[in-house]
Design goal:
elongated, 5 helices, mainly alpha
Length: 177
Amino acid sequence: MTTRLERLTRPLPGTSVSVRTAHRRVGYTLAALGLAAAMVSGVANLVAAGQIGGGEGGASAGNLAWSFGLNTAAFGTIKLAIATVLAGILVRQPLPIHRMAKRLWAPILVMGYMAVIVGFFISLALSGDPADVALESWTQGFQFLGEGLLLAGISFLLGAILASLREGGGEVQKDSG
């Protein structure tokens, strides 16, 4: 009996390399959501920049606080989209992957995205009190930890793909003599 994660990340027996999966569609949707959130954050930063010149420092600090959190969450969503599309490659490749990369890429991606989202919610709290240095530190800490974990998860996913390609190349050479 296969688990849900294995069905999303491992090929079914007899799966062809040319089979289309839902990973690409989900990945593109996540990427579009991340880009939209980044654009909202960019507009908020432009508004905050206008407020700084107008003398409304408290309001602009609040805008900068939540837009920083949204911006990092947006880029985290885009990285999750990249990982989702890459996971589609694993599902289509009927080859074994490296043991460590196979076991670590999914939990690291989940932990990274959770840290980014926690940082976003802390930034929302920070927007109510922009002078709270402790909240600002927690926001940046969670979000950069999450970003680092997302990049590590993507690296492990790429390593798993490369390991499966290497193994497949060895099988082809062995079969062709």
